[in-house]
Amino acid sequence: MRGTQTISASGHLVIGGVDTVELAREYGTPLYVYDTALIKERINQYKEAFAAYNGMDWQVAYASKAFSTIAILQLVNEFGLSLDVVSGGELYTALKAGFPAGRIHFHGNNKSDDELILALDANIGNVIVDNFYELERLEDLCAAKGREMEILLRVTPGVEAHTHEFIMTGHDDTKFGFNLDNGMADQAVQLALKAPHLILKGIHCHIGSQIFETEGFVRAIRVIFSYAEKWKRSFDFSMQVLNVGGGFGIRYTEEDHPLPVKNYIDSIVAVVTEECKARALSVPAVWIEPGRSIVGESGTTLYTVGALKDIPGIRKYVSVDGGMADNIRPALYQAHYEALCASRANEPADQSVAIAGKCCENGDVLIKKANLPESCRAGDILAVLCTGAYGYSMASHYNRLPNPAVVFVENGESQLVVRRESYDDLIRMDQPLKMFSSHE
Ligand SMILES: Cc1ncc(COP(=O)(O)O)c(C=O)c1O
Ligand SMILES: N[C@@H](CCCC[NH3+])C(=O)O
C-alpha cells in the first residue's frame, strides 16, 4: 500500500478516502487516479531537504513531461515549484494553467523557431540551450525582438547512470547537450558569453532516470566543477546556477529500493559545497528537475477485467480494457509494475497470472507475473500501481483507443481533471477524402 491507500471493510482498494470500485463505476475504466496527498508529501520532502541548508539558493522544477495537465500544473504552482517544459505543447499547457512564466524553464534538443518565439513572448525564466544551432537561433530571435534571455547550457558529463539504456542521458553517445570531454562545451560557453542578447547563468546536466544511488550525481557534479574552474580562469565565467536535472528513482515494485529524497539532496549539496571550497569558486544556486518522483507513486490505473485465457502448464492471461495505449512503459522499457484486484483487495493473491492489454500486439502485456486472487474474474476492477509518471503523458491512440480520464482524489473527494475521450474526439481532426475521386 502506498500513500493514502487502504482496504475498506468490503474489501475494496481505497485511495484518498475514495473507494476505487466506486471511482470505476462513476468515471469508467481505464482510469488514472492520482492520490494528491502523496504528490504534496513528495513536493514537501524536496522543499524540506533544501530548506535544511540555510543560505543555499535552490529551485525544484517539476519536470512536466512526467504528467502534464492543467490541474497538476496548478497544484505544483500552488506549492511554489518551478517548471521544466520540453515542447511548445507543454509550455502552452503551463501558460493556460496560469503558471508564472518567470518560473518556467524550457528544455529540448530541437526546439523550433515557433516554440522559441512562444517562450520569448511569454517571457519565461530561462531556456536550457542544447546545441550550437539553437544557440545561434536563440541569439538571432532575441536580437530581432530587441530583448535578452537568460540561458543555461546543457552539458553531457560522460557519466553513465545505472539505469535502462533508453533512459540514460549523461553518457557521451547521446543526442542531448554539449559534450564536455571533446571541447564542445568549452566552445559553447565562449559563444554564449559573446552572444549580445544571451545571459549565460549556468550549466545543466541530466544523467538519466530512475536512479537509485547518489554516485552518478556526485560524479557528474565533480566533472562539471573541474570545467567550471577552467571556465572561470579562462573566460571569467562564473556559474551562478547548476541544474543537475531529475532522475530520482521510485519504487515501482518491491525490488526497487530508491533512497529517501533527502539523501539525494544531501549528497548533491555536499559535493557542490565541497567542490566550490576546493576550487575557490562561489557556490551556485542548485536546481533540480524531478518528474517521476513527484507524481509516479501517486498514480494508479484502474481497469476492468475481461477475458481470461488459461493455457495449462504455460500461463493464465487476464485481459483488461486498456494496455500499452495508456501505459507504454512495459513494452518500451520492459518496466515492471505491481497490481492488485481492487474489488477483492482483502482476498489472498494466490494465483500468478499475466495481465494483458487489449491492443492488437502480442507484446501488449502490462505485467508478466502478477499475483491476483484465484476468484478474480470478468467485471472485477484491477489496479496497476505506480503509474503516475509517463503513463498518461506517453499515452497513444493505438488501435484508436480513446485516452482514459484522469481523476484526483483526496479526503474522500474525487475530481475529474481530464475527461475521457469519446470516439468523436478520436476523429475530430480527420478530414474526409477529396482527392483521387477515381470512381468517375
Ligand atoms: C532534462 C530532464 N530533466 C528532468 C527529467 C525528469 O526525469 P525524472 O522524471 O526521472 O525525474 C528528464 C527526464 O528524464 C529530463 O530529460
Ligand atoms: N519516459 C521515460 C523516461 C525518460 C524521461 C525523459 N528524459 C520513462 O517512462 O521512464
TrEMBL record:
InterPro entries attached to this UniProt entry: Ala_racemase/Decarboxylase_C, DAP_deCOOHase_LysA, De-COase2_C, De-COase2_CS, De-COase2_N, De-COase2_pyr-phos_BS, Orn/DAP/Arg_de-COase, PLP-binding_barrel
Reactions catalysed: meso-2,6-diaminopimelate + H(+) = L-lysine + CO2
Enzyme class: lyase
Occurrences of domain Orn/DAP/Arg decarboxylase 2 N-terminal (ranges): 38-295
Chain positions with N6-(pyridoxal phosphate)lysine modification: 65
E.C. code: 4.1.1.20
CC cofactor: pyridoxal 5'-phosphate
Domain Orn/DAP/Arg decarboxylase 2 C-terminal intervals: 31-388
Keyword Amino-acid biosynthesis: yes
Biological processes, Gene Ontology terms: lysine biosynthetic process via diaminopimelate
Active site: 360
Pathway: Amino-acid biosynthesis; L-lysine biosynthesis via DAP pathway; L-lysine from DL-2,6-diaminopimelate: step 1/1
Any one GO molecular-function label of the UniProt entry: pyridoxal phosphate binding
Residues annotated for pyridoxal 5'-phosphate binding in this entry: 247, 289-292, 390
Cited function: Specifically catalyzes the decarboxylation of meso-diaminopimelate (meso-DAP) to L-lysine.
Subunit structure: Homodimer.
Official protein name in the record: Diaminopimelate decarboxylase
Organism: Sporolactobacillus shoreae
